[in-house]
Amino acid sequence: MNTFQIRWKNRFMEKSLRYATILLLLSFTTLRAQSPYVSDVWVSDPGNGKYKNPILYADYSDPDVCRAGGDYYMTSSSFNCTPGLQILHSKDMVNWQIVGAAIPYALEPQTAPERPRHGNHVWAPSIRYHNNTFYIFWGDPDYGIYMTKTADPAGRWSEPVLVKAGKGLIDATPLWDDDGRVYLVHAYAGSRAGLKSVLAVCELNAGATEAIAESRIIFDGHEGNETIEGPKFYKYNGLYYIFAPAGGVATGWQLVLRSDSPYGPYEYKIVLAQGKSDVNGPHQGAWADTETGEDWFFHFQDVGAYGRIVHLQPMKWVNGWPVIGEDQDGDGCGEPVHTYRKPNVKKNYPICTPEESDEFDKNILGLQWQWHANFNPKWIFTDAANSRIKLYSYPVVPEYKSLWDVPNLLLQKTPAPSFTATMKMTFRPTAKYKGERTGLVVMGLDYGALIIENTDRGLALSQVECKDADKGNGEIVKAETVLGDATVYLRVSFDKQAKCIFSYSTDDKKYTTFGSPFQAREGKWIGAKVGTFCTRPDMIINDGGWAEVDWFRIAK
Question: Which among 65, 260, 326, 483 has the fewest CB atoms less than 10 Å away?
Fold first, then answer.
């Protein structure tokens, strides 16, 4: 057992009681509502046998999908957010629900106090189903390639294992070959490895828990396919295929490599590009088939503040190469479709979408929520008896400059190009202390928020903006007023350009626009997120106040 595995094991054992709370939050099977959730703001399935892209207008970055019988499972990059590696399930590739998370409570251990490590940790995972077991591999750019597995993707996943240590090792996918050997393809992060735009393959042991050979570079994309990354490994009709994007996140294309050996040499072909469509950079995703023999491809599109949203494309094999999307000119390179017939999966399934609104009336936190760092159970009480959550004020780090430094941000992905998020909140700070804060935040490299703070004048409501929060800048107050009541309704409305208008109400009937319009901006490798928090100055010790959130609702 190497040092990294020992660190994981020690943390897993020593903190098991501490994490009982979050494990309970994920034990939703017998508690969650039976009827599927359907969004008010984005539904890909109109119910007429077709679907529209994107199938998920939310930041499921670097998606990967596997099929187990008639079930499909998706995971995606989660970076610094926990629960990490959210698991989505579908029966038809179009309608999806969140069913769990492979990393429910903590990422690689870090020194207390907790703080976000923006853009780090979980990069470009792959999910595979082999011998009745589900596997997820991912790269942590600072430590190496990890793996976790389970028999039930909606249940508990195993303690992560460091399969291959090394800075800059990312974007890993395994391949179980016909002779029982196991191979792993991966990329390199230039920021850590000092090299990018190449792909490498190594061999793993039979249990896929440890690399047993050094990596060998098998493809160089520096000349014509720069920034090749995110490889996915497949075997089809006796040949080895690596699906890999190149050309950059917002401007690239989908490349496929082909060889009769896992170590190459590989020939290649561009099989999907933007062409005349308005879908920029269509690439990096997953090939999935149906039990009826159809082939489909998932990829993302980078849309700025909203992050990397998920599209589904038809796929077919022509002369030993996949063609993805619609190939209007017959050159073997397809373009993205906007609408298409749904996959043939033998029957029609109910329309459903990932959850967004939360009434907080269950003993669990909705699976759409993520914290911005390693979870600490002292942050929250899911008070189902009173249909609310209580967020306890938590001390900010001593070097605090803005909400960019706060780990206990409770956030969810933006779910559509335009929507409104409203929450009912009651703030109960400790009377003798000043500076405790809560509110509604749109978080990214820039952030905007409605902040309630305990001041000498009582509870003050302010609308703030922080530009370039990642560079250490502080907040600017755009508007301020004193609240007459501890209970208030906070709202933010997004238009199709991600411009945000904040407003508030004291009765949930008449809303007053407050402050200035705010232009949402993406975070570090993730889309903007919306949610809440509760903090107190670091000099307040022993105990503090809390914020009670009765509900959080996403609507048109």
Answer: 260
In this prediction, residue 433 carries a pLDDT of: 83
Predicted local confidence at residue 103, as pLDDT: 96
d(CA 301, CA 284): 9
Mean pLDDT of 103-123: 84
Calpha distance 341→418 (Å, rounded)? 25
- On the question of pLDDT at 18 being above 50, the answer is no
Contacts of 141 (CB under 8 A, 6+ apart): 120, 123, 167, 168, 169, 170, 189, 191, 192
Give bridge partners of residue 370 from the DSSP assignment.
Answer: 411
**Alpha helix (H) residue ranges in 105-213:** 190-193
Asked if 341 contacts 45 with a C-beta cutoff of 8 angstroms, the reply is no
Q: Which long-range contacts (CB under 8 A, 24 or more apart) does 202-206 make?
A: 202/164, 204/163, 204/174, 206/180, 206/182
* C-beta separation of 74 from 85 below 8 A: no
**Residue 111: predicted pLDDT:** 62
The 3-state secondary structure of 470-495, one letter per residue: HHCCCCEEEEEEECCCCEEEEEEEEC
**Which among 124, 403, 444 has a CA at the least distance from the CA of 307?**
444
- Res. 503: pLDDT tops 50: yes
* Complete edge-to-edge strand list for the sheet that includes strand 267-272: 232-236, 239-246, 253-259, 267-272
Q: Give dist(CA 285, CA 64) in Å, integer.
A: 5
Select from 123, 333, 127 the least CA-distant residue to 230.
123
Catalytic residue IDs: 62, 229
* Contact yes or no for 515/500 (Cβ under 8 A): no
- pTM of the predicted structure, to 2 decimals: 0.94
Phi-psi region of 407 (alpha: psi -120 to 50; beta: other; left: phi over 0): alpha
Q: What mean pLDDT, rounded, does the chain reach?
A: 93
User: Half-sphere exposure of residue 30, counting CA atoms within 13 Å on the CB side?
Assistant: 1
DSSP states along 42-80: --S--SSSEEES-SB-S---S-EEEEETTEEEEE---BT
Name residues whose C-beta falls within 8 Å of residue 469's C-beta, 6 or more positions apart in sequence: 402, 403, 404, 444, 445, 446, 447
Distance of alpha carbon 314 from alpha carbon 295, whole angstroms: 7
Q: What is the CB-side half-sphere exposure of residue 22 using CA atoms within 13 A?
A: 25
Cα within 13 Å of Cα(79), Cβ side: 17
